[in-house]
């Protein structure tokens, strides 16, 4: 039976809770922030899975543990985790550790609310609106709508669902069987979430028509138009084109103006997956790469990538001013979105989304922006371009590096050609042998903990490295390190 | 052009970053944790939207701000946010502030990685597996699969998509138009995400057949069977039943054994939406409410609700051992899930999901569980039941409270009957007048900041309050406060 005392442990004991959190925060600062971003520390401490399981003692038992044990667990979790804020973590499209964004994340986690009503998220409902407005302004829209989604893949799905609903509002109630066969279009360089989304939304992956890309990875608008005409000839109804601004591997920007022309001619929804490249809009120097984006109907943009806002910060932006989001997704749950509230219920934005509870993803970006200003963020973006350019020029000076292509963004794709393969290009097994280099080097760097960089095969090309310059703390020395370290790791190959 | 110095502000200046974070953490402890969970402080500081916009100065400008300004912004964000950890926040199915879970969240945010590969999330790939295994064991499964999703709504969608794929694997490639019309079944008390999911997945809301609930809000299995037979007679193919363990408003538990019998007879996938009630499985005393859950094919369970793990912590659990998740959702992106890695690529779990990047949601629950033990968490759950029971008994002693029904869970639904309406039941406008009470009281409590509790109309019944006993720090005094405060706020009505 309940009594008047709170439970043991920390429930209802604020002083003990504070003391624990102070201790944990100290560990976080020492281990994850100070060491985790220090170039002379390891970027990762590799352990084989079985050994790591032993070290972590993951099992959840009936008995609780002492504070000392818990603190030791916190240390172990950090010790064996990869340091994505480390200046030699080049592995993904996100990296770096922005202190202001992290401050925003800690506040978010402590306030622990859901974004669905003004009632329980007054600050964040207004803030999300303001942040989305700013992002829309950078796209070139003075009005519109939007929402933060749990990742770019889901933003892309939203775009597909919204386009489908706009063309065929019946779909919401009656489903796809009441509709003609639909077709959407994207390039072969697009992110895999487009096909995942088509499957999840019931359209099927066959509904995705794959358009050619040119030698630099950019969608070919003429081929897009051909595919549209072909789809129509086959009896399908085209409804959406998903262009990409910043492709995942090559960092290519689809020609948005030409694609927008095609969409206009055929009455199609233009979605721009700018999850990776969207942040380039902040740069006066480089935003021309996205010329035409203002003609899109929807844009997916992840500030957790190039702006280092922290996972996840994924905006879906819409040009629509007809409340399409809410009409498409709304279900009017009466327990949450009561219509007899004492404030303007238009502020309860939760019915715009297919989630119910939704995390607050705006504060981290807002606080970082307030601190850095648009100018500071612009400098960051410009700097990543400059560092990527420096890296490319340095590669050209060294014997063992071969560029896949001149990059137009901050993805630098290249082969490291080890000594034994230099000058062998054209030999029958050259490609095959070269393709085996990256996995070996990757294993070596991870096991040493010196660096992390991704590789992949791509089309007909064997494994090459994809260097991503995104961490705002990078310097020329980190670029030099990358080159030196690959030479060191690969000298015996 | 890039130079060798890092950017100004905090990029690349670890000492300044640390100092900022220390300051912010101090503010978080003082304002959000200490005051935010203190009964004598306000649960919220209500401001009208226009006034709040002014106070927050939300606009994002070109110029950055000083550290002092940023710290003041952090204080303002916390000041005007609702304190969901406050002992008088009863408004949602989540509340309270668990220090260990928050510690896990702070570490998660600092490490800032994505859950998709062992390469960049070694600790969390293994930890997620262990946590899911533990949750499955509580369901009654010694094997299976699962994943953490961004909220219960998306978990429910996953279940629908998986059931559809299992019945009709063709759907992934060819889409719903290649399939017969499908039907799924849930009760009228189910969460609104089932209909949202059906729309999003292209099935359409019409595909959701709404089964009767009894007077306590529990699905009627006989009516379920009738609906299945009817759907078949209409030419639809039934494929899934979504039962609810802990309905949103009434806290009802559908009779899972009887529903499982029906599913077995008709060969249907049984999904249990236990987003709210799943945590009752931890209690030896109360877990009988979910008897039969082990016969389900999938279970959605949100430890961020009754266990206070923090938003979001939403597990989708599967009985399947055939790699259904990966077969259904996989897209084999070659840039992320390389097959020539130097470790077992089965550890790269990212292709199980429809997201690409995915937040780490396991650590907060794992750390809390390690600290409290299963026993500690069981005590918590038992205690919420006991406090809810106490509240119900106290309500029966007071004139102004009328229960909607005897609760079987920790949702206590009731009307506050103000003095002017007492003894008036049966009068022609009684229901209408009673329905206007809750919105007025809600406005008063929010504007005073003394308490937050939700209300809603439900079926044919006018607005009543839904008290949720979930915060692990609650005491009998908080229950007494609720009653006293409603009497105080409503004394002139």
TrEMBL record, chains A, B:
<keyword id="KW-0663">Pyridoxal phosphate</keyword>
<dbReference type="InterPro" id="IPR002129">
    <property type="entry name" value="PyrdxlP-dep_de-COase"/>
</dbReference>
<dbReference type="GO" id="GO:0004782">
    <property type="term" value="F:sulfinoalanine decarboxylase activity"/>
</dbReference>
<dbReference type="GO" id="GO:0042412">
    <property type="term" value="P:taurine biosynthetic process"/>
</dbReference>
<dbReference type="Pfam" id="PF00282">
    <property type="entry name" value="Pyridoxal_deC"/>
</dbReference>
<protein>
    <submittedName>
        <fullName>Cysteine sulfinic acid decarboxylase</fullName>
    </submittedName>
</protein>
<keyword id="KW-0456">Lyase</keyword>
<dbReference type="GO" id="GO:0005737">
    <property type="term" value="C:cytoplasm"/>
</dbReference>
<dbReference type="GO" id="GO:0019752">
    <property type="term" value="P:carboxylic acid metabolic process"/>
</dbReference>
<dbReference type="GO" id="GO:0030170">
    <property type="term" value="F:pyridoxal phosphate binding"/>
</dbReference>
<dbReference type="InterPro" id="IPR015424">
    <property type="entry name" value="PyrdxlP-dep_Trfase"/>
</dbReference>
<comment type="subunit">
    <text>Homodimer.</text>
</comment>
<keyword id="KW-0210">Decarboxylase</keyword>
<comment type="similarity">
    <text>Belongs to the group II decarboxylase family.</text>
</comment>
<dbReference type="InterPro" id="IPR015421">
    <property type="entry name" value="PyrdxlP-dep_Trfase_major"/>
</dbReference>
<feature type="modified residue" description="N6-(pyridoxal phosphate)lysine">
    <location>
        <position position="305"/>
    </location>
</feature>
<dbReference type="InterPro" id="IPR021115">
    <property type="entry name" value="Pyridoxal-P_BS"/>
</dbReference>
């Amino acid at each position: 039976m309940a009594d008047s005392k709170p439970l043991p442990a920390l429930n209802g004991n604020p002083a003990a809770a504070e003391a624990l959190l102070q201790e944990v925060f100290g560990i976080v600062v020492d281990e994850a922030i100070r060491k985790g971003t220090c170039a002379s520390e390891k970027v990762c401490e590799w352990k084989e899975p079985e050994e790591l399981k032993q070290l972590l003692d993951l099992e959840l038992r009936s008995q609780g543990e002492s504070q000392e044990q818990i603190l030791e667990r916190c240390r172990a979790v950090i010790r064996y985790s990869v340091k994505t804020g480390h200046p030699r973590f080049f592995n993904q499209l996100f990296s770096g550790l922005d202190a202001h964004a992290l401050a925003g994340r800690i506040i978010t986690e402590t306030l622990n609310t859901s974004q669905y009503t003004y009632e329980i998220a007054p600050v964040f409902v207004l803030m999300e609106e303001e942040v989305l407005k700013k992002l829309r302004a950078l796209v070139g829209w003075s009005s519109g709508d939007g929402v933060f989604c749990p990742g770019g893949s889901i933003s892309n799905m939203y775009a597909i669902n919204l386009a489908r609903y706009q063309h065929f509002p019946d779909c919401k109630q009656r489903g796809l069987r009441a509709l003609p066969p639909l077709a959407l279009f994207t390039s072969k360089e697009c992110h895999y979430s487009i096909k995942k989304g088509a499957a999840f939304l019931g359209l099927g992956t066959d509904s995705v028509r794959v358009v050619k890309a040119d030698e630099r990875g950019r969608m070919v608008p003429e081929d897009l138009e051909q595919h549209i005409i072909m789809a129509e000839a086959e009896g399908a109804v085209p409804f959406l084109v998903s262009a990409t601004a910043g492709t995942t591997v090559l960092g290519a920007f689809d020609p948005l103006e030409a694609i927008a022309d095609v969409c206009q001619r055929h009455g199609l929804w233009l979605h721009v997956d700018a999850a990776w490249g969207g942040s380039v809009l902040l740069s006066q120097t480089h935003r021309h790469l996205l010329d035409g984006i203002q003609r899109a109907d929807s844009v997916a943009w992840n500030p957790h990538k190039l702006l280092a806002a922290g996972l996840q910060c994924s905006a879906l932006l819409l040009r629509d001013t007809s409340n399409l989001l809410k009409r498409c997704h709304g279900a009017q749950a009466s327990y949450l979105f009561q219509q007899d509230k004492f404030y303007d219920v238009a502020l309860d934005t939760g019915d715009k989304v297919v989630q119910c509870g939704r995390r607050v993803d705006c504060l981290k970006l807002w606080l970082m922006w307030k601190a850095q200003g648009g100018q500071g963020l612009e400098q960051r973006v410009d700097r990543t371009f400059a560092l990527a350019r420096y890296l490319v020029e340095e590669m050209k000076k060294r014997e063992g590096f071969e560029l896949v292509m001149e990059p137009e963004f901050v993805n630098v794709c290249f082969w490291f050609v080890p000594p034994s393969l230099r000058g062998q290009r054209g030999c029958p097994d050259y490609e095959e042998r070269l393709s085996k280099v990256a996995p070996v080097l990757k294993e070596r760097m991870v096991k040493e903990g010196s660096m992390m960089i991704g590789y992949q095969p791509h089309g007909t090309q064997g494994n090459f490295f994809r260097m991503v310059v995104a961490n705002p703390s990078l310097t020329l020395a980190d670029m030099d390190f990358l080159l030196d370290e690959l030479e060191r790791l690969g000298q015996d190959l």
